[in-house]
Amino acid sequence: MTAAIVATEVSRTYDLDGVSVPALRGVSLTIEPTDYVAIVGTSGSGKSTLMHLLGGLDRPTGGTLLIGGRDVAGLNPGEMAKLRNETIGFVFQSFHLLARTTARDNVALPLVYRGVGRRERRARATEMLERVGLSHRLDHRPNQMSGGEQQRVAIARALVTGPSVLLADEPTGNLDSATGQSVLALLESLNSEGVAVVLVTHDREVAARADRQIVMKDGVII
Amino acid sequence: MRLAEAWRVALDALRANRLRSILTMLGVVIGVAAVVALVGIGTGTKGQIEQQVEGLGSNLLLVVPGRLEAGSAPAASTMTMDDVDAVARVVGDRDRVAATIASGETVRAGSRSAFASMQGVLENTPNVFVRRLDRGSYLTRTDVTTGRRVAVLGAGTATALFGDRDPIGRQITIGGVRFRVIGTFERLGQSLGVDRDSEVHVPVTAAQRLLGTDRIDGLAIRAPDRERINRLSTAVVDTLTDRHPDTDFSAVTQEQILGVLGDILGVLTGVLAAIAGISLLVGGVGVSNIMLVSVRERTKEIGLRKAVGARPRDIGVQFLLEAVLLTTIGGVLGMALGVTSALLVDALSPVPAAITWWSLALAFGVSAIVGIIFGVVPAQRAGRLDPVVALRTE
After folding, report:
1. To pair with B117 at 20 to 30 A between CA atoms, which of A21, A72, B24, B260?
2. Between helices A118-131 and A103-112, what is the axis angle to 10°?
3. ABC3 transporter permease C-terminal domain: which residues (chain B) (predicted)?
4. What does the radius of gyration of chain A's CA atoms come to, in whole angstroms?
5. B20/B86 same-domain check
6. What residues of B are in contact with residue A55 (Cβ under 8 Å)?
7. Nearest alpha-carbon partner for B216 in B56, B52, B86, B73
8. Which pLDDT tens digit goes with each residue over A99-119?
């Protein structure tokens, strides 16, 4: 089985007004298709930068990064978008749902960029919402739903393309602890069904539930 | 992303900010409406003038002393009836050569009076110009040869002097001399800014006696066909120049008059359209401005769309379509407003207006192009947004 993501000596340096600021300094790690990994670290440790790289939102300035077996160094922004669409599902702390759009159409959004027809998009979105326990919320807009429900919609959206990796950035950060627990339980059940889950968090308790913890400090894994 | 989907997303975004979309469109609406209405008025005016010049009669050649050039003053005429006879010999048909001596005179009937353009003419005038009688009869050859004091009144003068009464057979005085009304013309309306309904036609001989002169102000020749006009024009001018070596003569055809008027109106319409075009341009700048605001406002949305797989091109197309929708919807509304304004002007004022399909097609095309031109920069900016930066924006 090939690894979902392989990072080898990856570094990322930002150029701020001509001054080079290293955010990642030689990070190597492998995400297997069955992994449940937590990336932890304080703010400024480089964990967000690492997540952006793993999710194909950004490209490293050094080292090699393979996502779904493809070296991102040779890809243009359009090809990167396609790669994200096919292999990565994102879950954000603030959900990032389109406000005027129903749950079903929010979930169907990634399929729009895959060129899937409207009818099939809706069918697959409905299926995903059922899977996250929201079959009664298909036509609700984000402002008509609780935070936990909104995060479930976001998870359904991340899943709808059948990605190999779910990247969750502080997925419980905006939720109360009971709701947070149920969201984590959902992610864990998805993981047991064969999707790699990468949690980025500063919450030690959340991180402790993962099978593997990667601790970041000053741009390196410790 | 499929194009149909992109249209829906763009339309959705415009609906979400309804008031702002409408206000942004307004700039384009006004610009397009101004272009359509002004071009319509220009076209209508040109059409009306062409109709009037052609309505004078067909294959006309107008001969006057002096040079018809910009800046040259009209020359006093030295032509007499002998010149008319000479020209008639060149033309070969006396019935095709009309002569006129004109003078502004006060015309009285009883206690009423009116200012009219007295035209001393030959009996053949209706053969040369299109001029229909309403009542009575026109001047006869005998009237002209004997200098009989009879008059044919324009519709306006007839109404001014006689109201609803029948003027035929009644007496009027022109410059204090008595004339008998033998006919009235059909109403013509304004032509090239001249009120042709206040003309009074009298025999040229009677007019010359009244004015104490034997001059003729101008000649009008009706050529047998279009092909012979130019040759005739040269021959007539040559004949007159031979007889009056000190005077220049000019002959103009309707086509020449139309050409000059058409050129003037074309320039005028162009200038008006250009001024209207500037307001369309300002509307376009407004669209560009609002699109930039929209891109900034929706940075997070752009970031999310990119994260889930939107390519820079998908985002760019989405914003470009939004701009194009704004300007084309604005363009259609502007066309409706422009057509309505032009029709209102046509109906409620003496200014004519004609809507042409090409001006509508042009207005629509231009508004779509304005959308593309002014949408490109915001669309590119949206497409190039770094997803990491976009997602971080709060």
Report:
1. B260
2. 120
3. 274-387
4. 17
5. no
6. 307
7. B86
8. 989 999 999 999 999 999 999
Same domain? B336 vs B294: yes
For residue A109, the chain B residues in CB contact (below 8 A) are 305, 308
Q: Say if residues B334 and B40 touch (Cβ distance below 8 Å).
A: no
**Tokens standing for B123?**
């009996």
Residue B30 lies in a domain: yes
For residue B6, give the chain A residue with the closest CA. Answer: A112
CA distances from residue A4 to A33, A52, A65, A184, A211 in whole angstroms, order as listed: 6, 15, 11, 21, 16
DSSP symbol at B165: S
- The structure tokens 């593309």 sit at B372
Examine the domain organization and report whether B243 and B265 are in the same domain: no
Tens-level pLDDT at each residue, chain B (394 residues): 678 888 888 888 888 889 999 999 999 999 999 989 988 988 888 888 888 787 777 788 888 887 765 555 556 778 888 999 999 998 888 899 999 999 999 999 989 999 999 999 999 998 888 888 999 999 999 999 999 999 999 999 999 999 889 999 999 999 889 999 999 999 887 655 667 889 999 999 999 999 999 999 989 998 888 788 888 888 998 999 899 888 888 888 888 888 888 888 888 888 888 888 888 888 889 999 999 999 999 999 999 999 999 999 999 999 999 999 999 999 999 999 999 999 999 899 888 888 888 888 888 888 899 999 999 999 999 999 999 888 887 5
Q: CB-based contact (8 Å) between B298 and chain A?
A: no
Shortest CA distance to B222 belongs to which of B62, B51, B84? B62
Q: What is the pLDDT of residues A172-202, one digit of tens each?
A: 988 999 999 999 999 999 999 999 999 999 8
Residue ranges making up the domain that contains B105: 76-247
**Within-domain flag for B69:** no
Tokens of A56: 């194909």
- Chain B nearest CA to A100, separation (Å): 8
CA dist B46 to A29, A58, B38, B358, B359, Å?
A: 79, 63, 12, 16, 15
Q: What CA–CA distance (Å, rounded) separates B151 from B119? A: 10
Q: CA-CA distances (angstroms) from residue B362 to A89, A184, B275, B374, B390?
A: 47, 60, 16, 18, 39
Domains of chain A: 33-58+76-221 (3.40.50.300)
Residues B234/B192, Cβ–Cβ less than 8 Å: no
Residues B323 and B200 both lie in one domain: no
pTM strictly above 0.90: no
B311 touches chain A (CB under 8 A): yes
Structure tokens at B340: 């309505």
- Whether B197 is covered by a domain: the verdict is yes
C-beta atoms of B301 and A98 within 8 A? yes
